[in-house]
Write a structure and sequence with these properties.
This protein is an all-alpha fold. 81% of the residues lie in helices and 0% in strands. α1 runs antiparallel to α2.
Length: 78
């Protein structure tokens, strides 16, 4: 990390703030990614439910949604 201040105490505080900012940024990025993945999974489940109601075969639903047949069967039981 680049030294921004000649006073070691001030530099220590600057380093702490920078590390905290970088840590917060990392967690926010990971949170966004996790949210996207949850959204995709929710869309797959909703699509599978709709296809089940329409009478589509388990194999077709699995192919379209990427869900396992066992997971689709679980949805069908609810």
């Amino acid at each position: 990390m680049q030294k921004l201040e000649s006073d070691p105490n001030i530099q220590k505080k600057i380093d702490h703030v920078v590390r905290k900012f970088e840590w917060d940024k990392k967690w926010k990025e990971e949170g966004r990614e996790e949210g996207r993945e949850e959204g995709i999974e929710k869309a797959r489940l909703e699509m599978a439910r709709t296809l089940l109601k329409d009478g589509s075969s388990l194999g077709y639903i699995s192919k379209v949604t990427g869900l396992t047949i066992d997971r689709i069967k679980q949805l069908n039981q609810k």
